[in-house]
Specification:
Elements: E1 2-7, H1 10-20, E2 25-30, E3 35-37, E4 42-44, H2 47-54, E5 59-60, H3 68-76, E6 81-85, H4 93-96, E7 103-107, E8 114-116, H5 119-125, E9 130-137, E10 147-154, H6 161-184, E11 199-201, H7 217-226, E12 233-237, E13 240-250, E14 261-265, E15 268-272, E16 277-284, E17 290-292, H8 293-298
Parallel strand pairs: 1-2, 1-6, 2-5, 6-7, 8-11
Antiparallel strand pairs: 3-4, 7-9, 9-10, 12-13, 13-16, 14-15, 15-16, 16-17
Helix pairs in contact: 1-2, 1-6, 5-7
């Protein structure tokens, strides 16, 4: 089949790489315009664009798909199907109707559970026990199209936003290859979503990473894992911002005010929560690299001592 691929970040680049290993003809790749990045703020291509250029595929980077020119450009490629993964642009109805078989989306949740921008992190933070990939027939709504194929994975107790992202990216590539094989054979059929079961996965913000110690320890631990590596979680000690990279919830009850450091030992720093105790095991001080609590103590820093209050 003649395929047009549209995607931008690493998650999408993994799927494009999987498609390159098939017999399908990828006739064009769409990705968002190059963005400034790094200390020099130089324009950098997206991960999808890098993969496309390495494979000598034609790359298109329209600011949006509203102009007749950009839509005509897509139509000239005469695609059988358009594969969309974390592209970052809204596709108008006129664009969705250009490919003969429409547009298929690789979505990182078991729809309709998490629609929207951040399904991976929201699933961990909510305490979901499983998630997965849904291949969806795109329509004009936000992740509301018919479900064509699903792949399920458990969410492990030590999964982070990063580890789950990488696993789902691989699963997404495998799922879209399988879906295209079924489409070729005329065996790909859709199932309508139940809107009553839908949740919205809001876009992540750095402000959400500020730990509220009045929450229960289990919920805080899930937030730490979900927001690792981005946008990260943090707490304040006086005027110092301390980033929390790894932590685990303890069932230990405490009568101390939430946010109070109650133990500081080499295996971790225990902090009272609204319910239970959070043990911080890896953190980052201002202007320093991430380190274990053991290294913090070895370094002699007199911080995070019992009785100090975090907020």
């Amino acid at each position: 089949m003649r395929i047009v691929f549209a995607g931008t970040p690493d998650f999408a680049a993994t799927a494009l790489t999987a498609l390159l290993a098939t017999h399908h003809d990828i006739v064009g790749v769409y990705s968002q315009p190059d963005r400034p990045a790094g200390r020099g703020r130089k324009l950098m291509p997206s991960p999808v664009k890098k993969v496309a250029l390495e494979a000598d595929l034609p790359v298109f980077q329209p600011e949006n798909f509203r102009s007749p020119e950009s839509q005509q450009e897509l139509a000239m490629l005469n695609p059988d199907v358009m594969i969309v993964a974390a592209y970052g642009l809204i596709l108008p109805k006129t664009v969705l109707e250009i490919p003969a078989h429409g547009c298929l989306n690789i979505h990182a949740s078991l729809l309709p559970r998490w629609r929207g921008a951040a399904p991976i992190q929201r699933a961990i933070a909510a305490g979901d026990r499983e998630t997965g990939i849904t291949i969806m027939q795109m329509d004009k709504g936000l992740d509301t199209g018919a479900m064509l194929l699903k792949a399920i994975t458990p969410i492990h107790d030590d999964d982070t936003g990063g580890s789950l992202h990488d696993r789902l990216a691989t699963m997404g590539g495998e799922a879209i290859v399988k879906a295209l094989a079924l489409l070729e054979k005329g065996e790909l059929s859709g199932e309508a979503q139940n809107d009553d079961q839908a949740c919205y996965a809001h876009k992540l913000s750095k402000e959400e990473g500020h730990i509220d110690w009045h929450q229960d320890a289990t919920g805080i631990e899930r937030l730490v894992r979900a927001f690792n590596p981005w946008p990260g979680t943090y707490t304040d000690l006086d005027d110092q911002r301390i980033r929390i990279h790894e932590a685990c919830a303890l069932a230990d009850a405490s009568t101390e005010t939430p946010g109070t450091v109650i133990r500081r030992e080499r295996e971790g720093i225990d902090v009272a929560c609204g319910e239970g105790t959070l043990r911080i095991t890896r953190l980052q001080l201002p202007g320093a690299r991430a380190q274990s609590v053991n290294d913090l103590i070895n370094g002699g820093k007199q911080l995070l001592l019992p009785g100090q209050e975090l907020n």
